Automatic annotation (TrEMBL):
Pfam families: ABC_tran. Signal peptide: none annotated. This is Energy-coupling factor transporter ATP-binding protein EcfA2. The lineage of its organism: Bacteria, Bacillati, Bacillota, Clostridia, Neomoorellales. It is a peripheral membrane protein. It comes from Moorella mulderi DSM 14980. It is found in: Cell membrane.
Amino acid sequence: MIRAENVEFTYPNGFQALRDLSFHIRSGEFVALIGQNGAGKTTLLKLLNGLLKPTAGRILIGGLDTARARVAELARKVGFLFQNPDHQIFLPTVREELAFGPKNLGLKGAALEDRVAEAAAAVGLTPYLDVNPRQLSKGQRQRVALASVLAMQPEVLVLDEPTTGQDYREALEIMRLVKKLHQQGHTVLLVSHDMEMVARFAGRALVLGEGRLLLDGPVATVFAREDILAATGLVPPQVIQLARPYQEQGLLRPVLTVEELYAEIIAALRGEVDARQVLPA
């Protein structure tokens, strides 16, 4: 679905943001893009949606070369969710906001109404269609922004820090919604500084550092490389750090969440492994 081939990008002031970057993301994957500020994540996202063009190499999305495609063409392939929903919402009602993109694609009448209704239902916004988005909570406005992306029916969802500025409950609701969309067939690329959310929801992680790809693999494998993560200012979730000594002794399987650790402990207590070895006295 997404293929980056030896991609480089240099800004007009001479700053090189990306260096010889190559990776591919298969259709239906849920991938997290992580790295410290200045690693090149935002530049890469702008390359994916056509706002920037590579200065070397190329990016293909569904076979479409982003350097040659019009932004409107890419909008049918890639849906981009901004970090701040208020940078994305500008119309007086939720209904108009959701209809804006499909209307620009040429949808009219019943087809447009159906598209709006479907997108609203997907994120639980049906009761709010005639409400001004500015009257909603930030978490609800993030849903409006996400629904406006879904109304375009893109194959890929690119999410830039979708939980920023939200409390844990709101953040978890948004991520559960994203997971549901992924299970329905969307390819998801998530940019996040929240390592717990990455561990809980993503299946694979790409780690950028100074414009280069430092790590690429299953989340558990990537989080095991604490030496490289430390050099990029990233710290795995505490539950992973807590479980690692037991994993190194072969007493626990790799865990990414508190729920998984709890399940392992219950298994130990039921005698599936020696509980006296796993649990300290």
